[in-house]
Structures are given as structure tokens and as C-alpha cells.
Amino acid sequence: MIVIKELNKTIGEKTILRNVSLQVDKGDTVGILGPNGAGKSTILKIIGGLMKPSSGTVKIEGQKIKDNPLETKKRIGFLAHNSYLYDHFSPLENLKFFGKLYNVENCEVKAKDLIREVGLTYFMHEPIRSFSRGMIQRLAIARAIIHDPEILILDEPHTGLDQHAVTLLNNVILKMKEKGSTILMVTHDFAQTVETCDRIVIMKHGVILDDFKVTNPDVDMIYEKYVEQVG
């Protein structure tokens, strides 16, 4: 599904990624762990077409993003640090806007269902400029999946969420897994990684240190493995 070969990214004199190679099969849910500055978010931005690599290739279903950027990006849902929402719009108006960009059928019905799913029904028609960080994050999750993407990219999705919202998000991730979506998630939350991911990649200083299947959903075991690699 996604094949990354010898990916490098340099900004100025700083090397962010160093010869990173990774293959993600269709339907995989991969958690990417690592300390700040490991290059985790940079990989997601390159896969999502938001940033160009200095060298190396990223192919999705055998096709480079630059060869057909519009069609490739239509297959991707991206939840970044920036919500990409319009603060003078309501949740419904935001989701209808993004749904129409992707030519989503029955867009309003789909938008209302997602608003209900992320627990914002009561605020459906309110401008989001007064929303809390957690509420914005919930709506951004809905925005990322309005078009049922084949690939879902999540950059620290649990940030700013209370426990109830974390449960809602995990349910969304698991539902996308059931639909067959391929999911890549950068996170610092080991518990949520174990609950939702079936594979973990550990990075440090722009290099992949470990890549393994989650056969034992034990948070302590994953943490010990992480500390062993990252130090």
C-alpha cells in the first residue's frame, strides 16, 4: 500500500530524516513512537503530500504522489496539529464544506452522523471560534474522515482530549480499521497505541530503531521496549 525507500529530509543544516525505508500494507494500523525531534511528524507530512522529501521516494499503490497528486491525496485523510477548520463556520458548515470538496454523497447526512459520533451534536450549529481545544480536535477528526479515506494519517490525535473524547476517538479509529483503512498514527500515549495499533515503529534522530507487531497488548512491555531503544 505505502512503500517508503531511502527517505531523507534536510532543512537548512539540520537533517530530519536519514535514509528511512518503511512498508505499510493495506489495512495495517501503525503507531509511530519516538521523542520530540525524531522525525515522526515529518514522515507523516511527506506521505500526506504536505512536504517534499530532500531525496528518496514514497509510493502509494505503486504511484508517486507527485505523479498524480490530486487523485492520490483524495485517498488520504490527515489529522495534523493544525485543525484546518474555519472558525466562523459551525461544525455542520465545516464538514459540509470539506465533504463537498471530496464529492461526498449525501454530504449533510454524513456530516450530521459524524458530528453525533464525535459528541458535538448539541453544538452542531454554533460557530467553532469559541470551542475548546478538545472540541476542535473532535471536529478535526470528523473532518479527516468525512470522505472515508483509504489512508488515515493521525499526528498526535489524542492531544487535548479528555478521557471520554479519547474513547470516542479510539472507537473512530477502530471503526476505520474495520472498514479496511490503512492508518498511521504518531503518538506519545502508549496505552492508546496498544489499544488501537497492530504494529509499532520506534524512531530517534530521524532513524527507525525498531519495527514490530503488537502480539502482546501489554503497555508496560511496550514502554520497556521503547526505553530500551530510545534510552
From TrEMBL:
GO terms for molecular function: ATP binding; ATP hydrolysis activity; transmembrane transporter activity. CDD domains: ABC_DR_subfamily_A. Keywords: ATP-binding, Cytochrome c-type biogenesis, Nucleotide-binding, Transport. SMART domains: AAA. The keyword Nucleotide-binding applies. Residues 2-230 form the ABC transporter domain. Pfam families: ABC_tran. One of its GO terms (biological process) is cytochrome complex assembly. PANTHER family: ABC TRANSPORTER ATP-BINDING PROTEIN ALBC-RELATED. This is Heme exporter protein CcmA. The lineage of its organism: Bacteria, Bacillati, Bacillota, Bacilli, Bacillales.
